[in-house]
Every structure is written in structure tokens, then in C-alpha cells.
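Curious: why these numbers?
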Amino acid sequence: MHSAELIEAIQSSLSELVTYADELRDLDQALGDGDLGITISLGAAAVTEALGALPEGTPPSDVARACAKAFANANPSTMAALVAGGLLAGSKAWTGIEDVDVSAAARFARAAGDNIAQRGKTQLGDKTILDVILPVADALDAAEDGTGGLDAAIAAAEKAVVETRPLQSRRGRAAWLQERSIGLQDPGATAIWRFVESWRKAGINR
């Protein structure tokens, strides 16, 4: 998809994502400080506004950078900083790209995940958003001829969220709970799952 379609897709997806704000708040109250619903809502509103102000023909890499800046400025939280950093890293994977396809989406997700892993000093199995982002990247990579990528990404995200529930949280506020975090669903990982799912609910097929 080209820039105009990409912007519309992001805005539509974010309008769907905020409907999960209460779920994310409740999950975060169990494992964190309970502000994830607000973080997502404020960030989504800021990104939507920023994208609406972009000039026609803004390249996808700059669209992603605008998302990163708006999301970070809307929230003073660690989660916002990590997500913004991931978005900035992903934007570099789109340098020179005019048409974002499934392959480009996979490169974006992987770059974002690698950045979050480095900045957050986390790895797969720590029960964080990384446990969802990298499987999503893998699913997009494996999409045959670029088809079925979104459905595969959604399935991979859901599977990762479910499979990490029995794990102990090892990063962020959730790690403070130690063994008590076992069996609880990670809110950040759930947010990424819901975001990917929101692309389909917004009527986006790729």
C-alpha cells in the first residue's frame, strides 16, 4: 500500500485498538501500574492527529517516523518510549520504499522487535511485547507470495500471548511480582496482538 492508503489503514486500525483500552487497563493493573489503557488511547489519538497533518505524498518511512514522534510525545511512560523507539527502527527498514507490502511489513516488525530487545534488555521468553512482535515478523516472512500474511500474523500473535501466560515475567514492573506473575497475561504483549487484530477489524486485508 502507498502512503495515502497506509495512513488510512493506520488511523482505522488505531480507532479499533482503543476499543480494547479497558481490557489493557485491567491486565496492566494485575501486572503493572494500570496505565496501559490510557497510554494506548492517548498515543492513538496523537498518532491519528499527526498523520492527518502530513502532506500528500509523504513516504512510508516518514509516516512511521511521524507515528513514533507522536506516540512518544503523548506519553511519558517506558512503554511509550520503547514503542516509539521500535517504530523509529522500523522506519529505517522502509527507506526508499514507496509501496509497503507484506515483506516490507515483516522487515519493519523485525527491526522494531530487535530495537525493543536491545533498548529493553529483553529476550524471547521474558514475557514482554517482544514475545509477540518477533513471531508476527516470522509469520509475515513466511506468508506465501505475500498472501495470507495478516491472518498468519494475527494467529501468531494470539498463540504467543497464550503460550507466555504460564511464564514468569522477567522485565519491567511485572517482574516485581516474580512467581505471582505466572498465569497472568502480559498486557504489552496483548496490546500488540490487539493492534495486529485491529487491522483486520478495520477491513484491511494485507
